[in-house]
Amino acid sequence: MALEAANELKVSSHPYDDDDAASLNINSKLVNPFIGKTHEEMDHLINAFMEKTRIDEIYAEHIRKGAYLAQDHEAFDDLREDGLQLKPEERAALIMEDPKRGNKWNQPWILYALVGCCSLGAAVQGWDEVRDPFLAEFAIRPIC
Fold first, then answer.
1. What CA–CA distance (Å, rounded) separates 63 from 107?
2. Whole-angstrom distance, CA of residue 42 vs CA of residue 81
């Protein structure tokens, strides 16, 4: 009986599958606050963000593209009415970020260096936090 009820209740497996249902779901609003917004609402939000943060106008196109991609990952698959288009290198970068089509391990070497430095810093911090209680417990005085 419970299995039949579960089969009757169709639940979307992805928050982008049904924009109307997703806009009613508070969890999807937390995941993506742009779901269900019209083009005019998106333009208003983007312009308000640009004014509030005083970002230079030279970045406006990038911010618009990012906002529409955040709203819908397929926003630039077809021709758009507003004239925004992704450059070939931007499309290639998006494909590389896609876990189904790209290679998630193909990242700039500086990113791996940053992760390594942060890991070493975390290890040193952990050693420092462990050392102090150990020294106090056995009444060992630090040298420096």
1. 22
2. 14
Name residues whose C-beta falls within 8 Å of residue 66's C-beta, 6 or more positions apart in sequence.
none
Instruction: Render the burial of 107-136: b for 16+ CB within 10 Å, e for the rest.
Output: eeeeeeeeeeeeeeeeeeeeeeeeeeeeee
Report the run of H or E that residue 141 belongs to, with start and end. Answer: none
Output the DSSP codes for 81-116: TT-----HHHHHHHHHH-TTTS-TT---HHHHHHHH
pLDDT for residue 6: 42
The pair of three-digit structure tokens given for residue 85, joined into one six-digit string: 């288009």
Residues 122 and 131: their CA atoms lie apart, in Å, by: 14
User: Which of 76, 114, 89, 98 has its CA nearest to residue 106?
Assistant: 98
Taking only the tens place, the pLDDT of each residue in 36-59 is 889 899 999 999 999 999 988 888
Amino acid at 48: A
Tokens, residue 70: 């955040």
- Burial (0-12, 13-18, 19+ Cβ within 10 Å), 68: buried
